[in-house]
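Subject: for your reference before the review

Hello V.,

The reviewers asked for a structural picture of the protein, and I figured it would be easier to keep everything in one thread rather than splitting it across files. Below is the amino acid sequence we used in the manuscript, unchanged from the supplementary table.
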Amino acid sequence: MPSVFIKTYGCQMNERDSEAVAAQLVAQGYGLAASEAAADVILLNTCSVRDAAEQKALGKMANLAAEVRQRRPEVVLGFLGCMAQSRGQELIAQQPEVDLVLGTQKFHRAAEYLADIAAGRLTKVVDTAEEAGSEGTIREHLAVGGGGASLAKAQGVTAFVSIMQGCNQYCTFCIVPYTRGQERSRPIAEIVAECRELVARGVREIVLLGQIVTSYGKREIGVRDGRSAFVQLLEAVQEIEGLERIRFTSPHPKGYGEDLVAAYGRLSKLVASAHIPVQSGSDRILKLMHRGYTRERFVEIVRQLRQVRPAMGLTTDLIVGFPGETEADFQETLGLVRAAEFDNAYVFKYSRRRDTPAAEMPGQVPEDVIEERHARLLAAVNEIGQRKYQACVGGTMQILASGPSHRNAARLEGRTACNKIVIFEGSERHVGQLLDVRITRAGSFTLYGDPAILNLN
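And here is what came back from the structure prediction:
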């Protein structure tokens, strides 16, 4: 039986795509290898959002070609995903040991092309063409116990469901619209059917995925009775019996209309958590980024969400060093972080991406300035986050137990509704349960529960 190893770079969308490819290959008789050293096929699912991610994937493939191929020349090597989409044939020219390059609308063709390569019908495959209906092809999930824990992503409790592909936002710093294409959404009924199947297999939490998830169904479904297509989808998933929690990522601030804010107050399964990328606190920089909202509007969204759900956990994405960013602009971002008091934030250094408008903008910020601002912003985020996590100590929080802790397999972990990880004592029978846990201490963006767990029967 041939085996495959898939290494994933980048976002949860990429993780979901990798899982779907793995599930398709398993259905064709492949096994999931524990490492590349034991695999007959090695696929790197790539990211293009930052240059560092591309360089890691390129370096990894070069090492595989030099080391693995030297010992086992029959091994098939391939690139999938965003970098494969943007670079295409260039990857084969740079690294001739590569056999397969599949773009973001071609994941479902992986098994077909690998069979052709194995049979000698094809030697090199590069397919980055658009394909109508590709948004509906990423629906396979690995069965519980099917191996490949890194791909399954706690499949027994939490599952990712892709609801759309593509992005129409065209932020000036972002390459995603060029690698993922235009927005294309799946029908509500099809998504609900997939979610029901997952719940029947033991899943208790569904995470809805989209490049800008709040843009779901704008053209295909539209607004009905004052509710956006995305809110209509949330309502439909809410009705699935046996499902405990609904999460989604990543939204856009422009998607937080009155209907979505109100949904947090009336949909019991929609968790009190929101990851809303703000990117900058400066209106001038937001305009240069083509974000479509102002600092004032973002602060108002935060206020409304906390009014509906006072315990709302809020996280965000921030970019430092965008072209033209001055110290005054940076201070606006620092001020926003302190005003919004995010539970956590992902702080990124601006990465110049070819073929994006920002790459050619004047006022490119020197690397040393970016580094210094990054350190200052990260320190502010950490200080606020640690204070908010420490405030949880002594209280009781409900968690969904997901399985063994990634840091200590002898203990379990779970997430609160406000998306904080809690490490606690328990046993296998508690996995998948909603439990009330008394918080005894806070680490670095991690909470720890007392072994005397409430309601642990």
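For the response letter, the relevant points are probably these. The first strand starts at residue 3 and ends at 8. DSSP finds 14 helices and 19 strands in the chain.

Happy to draft the paragraph if you're swamped.

O.
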